[in-house]
Design brief:
elongated, 39% helix
């Protein structure tokens, strides 16, 4: 050792900071989840399924959302009319009664329509032509993942109209260990490729439970 590098006796040891290791390319974009948080895992898979369906050339339908907004605005207009009616209470009691009746009717009709059209679906999509015209059938997505269980089920329902019953039902069902590694990183590309396969073959990949319901 050179004489200039010798440390005098009793001098404190100087610790040098180790520079951080640069992340591997692509790791920054990887999402990591708690494998015990079934809600977060289900939400991540649902979002990835939506991305896969839209990436496959389908377009999201906003008919149900617009229907909710329309009913909400209609009932709000009656509430505003009852609030700012020129006559004071109790001379405008008939307007108050009418607004309450209309609100109850709209709520009932909206719930019935959503029960028939929406159910537990989180996506409505349809294929469109280059001119923007709708073609093909409507596809709805819904999913099931019981709490504290590893089984995830993604259900595809193909129907001709929003009020029509499904004519084809397909189901992608597997353990989350297929879509997440041991560190909780999501295998998004693998999952989305499988979703596109089921989407392109309606009724082709179907669980026995769904077949028995048809």
């Amino acid at each position: 050792m050179a004489k200039g590098n010798k440390r005098p006796p009793g001098a404190p040891v100087v610790q040098q900071e180790v520079p951080p290791v640069a992340p591997i390319a692509g790791d920054a974009q990887r999402e990591t989840f708690d494998l015990m948080d079934t809600s977060a895992l289900k939400r991540a898979l649902d979002d990835a399924a939506v991305g896969a369906v839209l990436d496959a050339g389908m377009q999201e339908l906003y008919t149900v959302s617009n229907l909710k907004i329309g009913f909400g605005l209609f009932t709000c207009l009656w509430a505003v009319l009852a609030q700012f009616f020129p006559k004071k209470h109790p001379h405008h009691w008939h307007v108050l009664v009418a607004s309450l009746v209309i609100y109850a009717i709209c709520t009932l009709v909206l719930n019935l329509l959503l029960w028939r059209m929406e159910g537990d679906a989180f996506l409505f999509a349809v294929s469109v032509s280059n001119s923007g015209q709708r073609r093909g059938t409507i596809v709805t997505l819904s999913s099931i993942m019981p709490k504290y269980q590893e089984q995830y089920s993604l259900i595809f329902r193909h129907r001709d109209g929003l009020l029509d019953l499904p004519r084809e039902v397909s189901k992608l069902e597997d353990s989350i260990t297929e879509w997440f590694d041991s560190d909780g990183c999501m295998l998004k590309t693998k999952f989305q490729q499988r979703v596109k396969q089921v989407l392109q073959t309606p009724g082709g990949i179907t669980s026995p439970q769904i077949k028995n319901q048809r």
